Every structure is written in structure tokens, then in C-alpha cells.
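Hello Y.,

Per our agreement to keep a running log of every chain we model this quarter, I'm adding this entry. I've kept the format consistent with earlier entries: sequence first, then predicted structure.
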Amino acid sequence: MALTEVYWDQHIPLPQLAPVPAKVTVALVALLCFINSYDGEFVFDDSEAIINNKDLKSTTPLNNIWRNDFWGSNLSSNSSHKSYRPLTVLTFRLNYLIAGGLHPIGFHVLNIILHAVISALMIDVFAILIGGLAFDDKGRTLNHAPKTSLLAAIFFAAHPVHTESVAGIVGRADLLCALFFQLSFLTYCRAFNKGSDRDYRFSVQWVVVSLLLCAAALLCKEQGITVLIMNYNYYYSLNAWLLLCPWWLCFDWSMGCVPLIKSATDWRMVWLLLLWCVLIGLISQALCSQDSQRRRTLTLGLVLLVVPFLPACNIFFRVGFVIAERVLYLSSAGYCLLLAYSLGHCCCRWSKHRKLLCVMVFALVCMYVVRCAVRSHQWRSEQSLFTSALTVCPLNAKVHYNVGKNLADRGNTTAAVGYYREAVRLHPTYVHAMNNLGNILKEKNELIEAEQLLSKAVSIQPDFAAAWMNLGIVQNSLQKFEEAEQSYWNAIRFRRKYPDCYYNLGRLYADQNRHVDALNAWRNATVLKPDHSLAWNNMVILLDNIGNLGQAELIGREALRLLPNDHTIMFSLANVLGKLQKYKESEGFFLHALRINPNAASCHGNLAVLYHRWGKLELAKKHYELSLKLDPEAPGTRDNYNMLRRKLDQLKRNTP
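Predicted structure for the entry above:
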């Protein structure tokens, strides 16, 4: 069938929206791929963007969202990541309010729904991009846009590289950006739709809506770029490989995961050259092909592939990563379009093998679906996510660090030590791994090595406040009091508002019987962090121990006004009130503390002492027995109980 004339009709209306069954099919494919991530946990970056982000809480003013970055830090702060995504944070806040707290299911479900909607809308986007008409010599249309756009949308819905964006909640930024991008594009096209007089009817209103949607996309995820070097070219080829073969996926690609190219003779240069040969070939076809349909499809497919990737390509400014799967979310649409168009072209050219090609396409989609299901299952928990990365990037120090941190958080510090050590071996200046390893060794009482590690960490990064504080704790345990005090003050110098450091400094002063300095340090901790329970409690206990009961009572009451349900402060204040012979009030605090924490042996024991002094001997006996039942080795309780029993026996003998 010869083409006598191939042209674009410049006055045709935009392609009709895809029928509902096609969109439902694509949406169902998207749901099938990622539905098993709906009940996953908060993992990886979710802890900072959601769990620790105060902008999600209803107690935080809504205006803060517009002044803070994606992670909840003020944009003017030196520590800010400068990621400005207020609309994304707003959706997180809505999730939080609707669920009544930090419940991950609602966050995950919304991500999955967004991906399904985006995938369905991709049919319309692809149809517009390839929606020209071509005619053969008999005037019959050769336009295969509906089939191609549907196939491309299915590829997009099922591509495994999208797992991080869908199963990882912070990927919401990429999803929302893609959604508003689509809507802006479709609305813009609507603004130039044809009228009944076969002339375009330009709509200012739709253009304005398109611009507003474009701005919304920008407020969901910022854009940016830096300078070209050879290694970035290699990273481009790795990103291309993730699109072609998405079996090699990892949550983090930094810290040695991808060794740098240091010589032009490195064999990996082959992939770089292959990438550019393919791109140049596609570009030449897009520019020089005599088939206008092919020129349009290849041009727009390449634009959709390349332009959304520009913010992460390091051409215009340096970004904080070398490879990140979620940045390929929108770019993959261009790849899916080119793939679907190429397969359609093959079907037309090799019509005798069309059935075989259809089987291959079906097999590819099935493999995508299976890979998505497996990968989204790995994203359900940090344990499975981090462990899965060990086989992909065994040289990535950050992977070993995260596996170790996850093990330590779950109480398996012995196994965590091995991964932290490996992280330090792979990356000898990895101060965060040194700090965490030093903390574990401190808890294991391996103080000498802990001190060495933490000292090395602060020598590499002198402003690492947390490492300075932890070094001070270790030095205090080694009775190096002067060095410990200096380490604490170094931590405070680099982090002025550091309540935990003031708390530990107070403990140091208390160990040295510097009572006034200790009280001042703990007071500073409570000023910086009014809910610092340990600092409040230590002030009450210290004042009690030195006999300043009146001041101890005042501090205890002040603490309970801020922390009305803190049973440890109630316990300490009750002890003070008992010594002041305010027995009734002391009893009330003891009983309140026990309602909150009924299995506190010490609280039962001290309440028994109160009743013993008060003369309520049967109640004293009851609480002594409860205390001993909970903790048979409770110091002093057995002796007090035996003393009470002797007194009760004596009373019985003296009773006529």
C-alpha cells in the first residue's frame, strides 16, 4: 500500500477522549501492580517528610506550609533542603487529618489511586501527541493512535521503575507533579480546539487554567539543573537501562553504588556510546524522516522523555543524587510512547509475525506486573527494602548503614554492628555510621573503641553536634570529666538549641556534685524543650536528695502543668509530698501514677511506705505485696515488708 500523500490536517479537532473501558483497563493494570503496597509502613525518607514533619500536625499553623520546605524546615534556614513542595505537604496534612494521626494506609492508598488516575489520563496525552492523520492513495486513514496510546498507557501503568514513586509515600511529589502536568497539557490543548467554522477557537479562559495547573505542578515538585561531565553521561545510560530492564532497582544509588568512571578505557564507556548512538538515531529520524507521522511521534516522544528528566540531569545545577528511580516517573511516559510506537511499526512492517509480536507484548506486560508486585512488596517495610538493596548495590555504604540502623531500631544491635562496620569500611569518612556504631559500643560498655570512633567522627566533621554529645557521654562514663564537659559545650556551640545535650551536661554536673550547675543545665533543657520529662524529673529528684523539698515541690508542680500525664514526675512529686507529710495529696499522685502505669513495682513500694508512715497498715501490706510480686528483688521493699509484718503481729498479740 503506497503512500501518495502524507500530511497533517491543521484544522482537525483534537482526538476524542479515550473511551471509559480503555481508561478503566489501564487503571486496573495500575492497581494490580501496586495494590499490595497499600498497607505498607512509613519507610526511608517518609520518616523525615511525614513522621517528623511538624507541618502535618493540626496544631501547626497552616501558613507554615508556604514558608517551609518539603521536610518542615524554614526555607531561610541554613539546614533547609530548599525543596519547595507546599501542595504535596498539604495533601500529607489532609491525609493526617482524615486518618486522625500517622496511619500509613491512607497515605499509601492515595498514592496508588493517583497512579491509576495518571495512567488512565496518559491515554489522552499519548493520543494527542500522536493524533495526526495519515492517508493512503485511496484516502483511507492509516492512523493507529488509539491502539498505540492504549498500549503506551498500559506500559506506563505497569512499569516497575514507578515503584518508588507509588509505594514510597514521598513519591507523592512526583505523582502530583505528573497529574498537574497532564491536566495542564490537556487544558492547553483544549484552549485551541477547533470551532464549527473549521477555524481554531482560542479560549483565554482555558489558557489561564492551563497556566494555573502548570503552577500547581511546580508547587508539587520544584525543578532544577547543573554542569555536564563524563560520569553524568554514564548515569544517563543507567537511567535508560532502568527503563529498558527494570529488574535492577535500589532505594538509594549513592556512596559507591555506581563506581566512578576514571578512564576513557573503562568498559562501561560502551554503554555511554550506545546510549548516544540510539538517541542520535532517534533524533535524526525525528528530524529527517519523510513520514510526518513518524517525525511527530518521535519528536514528541523524545521531548516527553528528555524534558521532564532535565531537573535531575545535573546539567544546569547540581542536585543531591546521581540516580533516583522516582525522577523517571514522568520521563518514562516518553519511553513508553516510543516503545509502543516502535512495536506498532513492527507489527505493520512484519505483519506475518504479528501474532508473535502480540504474544511478546503480552509477556512483557505480564513481566512488568510481576516485577511491580515483587518490588512494591519490598517497599512495604524498611527491613525488606533495605535488605533487597544489598544484592543490587553491595558497595553502597548507605545501604549497609540503613540495614544496620533498621536492625538497631528493632533491638538487634549485635547484627547492626557488622553492617555499621562495613559501612565505615566502604566509606571511611561516613561520620553518621561512626556515630551510630559508637553509640552501640557505648551501650555494650566497649568505651575505648566508642571514644575512638566518635573522636574520629568529630575530627572529620567538627560541627557534628550529635557526635560531640555522644563523645561527651562516653568520656563521662570513662570519668574523663573535663573532656566530657568540653565535648558537651562543643555540641552546644554547633547546635545552640540542644536540650538533650543540656540534659546530659546536667548529669555530668550531678555526678560531680555541682548541684547548682546541674539544675541550671536541666532548666535550660526544659526551656528549650518544655516536655523534656527526664530533665524535669531529675530536677525534682536532685532537690529531694539535697533536702530542698519546698523547691522540689514547686518544680514538680510546674512540670505536671506541662506534662499532666507523666507518671514518673507524679511518682517523684508524690515522694516529696510524702516527706512533707502531705499524705493525702501524696497518695493521690501515687494512685494516679499507678492508673497510668499499674505495673510499676517502685510506685507500689513507695506508696506502701507512705501508708506505713501514715498508719494505714493494711493498705501498706497490700502494696508491699504487689511490689514484691512485680519485682521480688526490689531494694528495701522486702525489709520494709518484714518490718510491717512484725508490727502487725505485735498489734494482733496486743489486741484483747
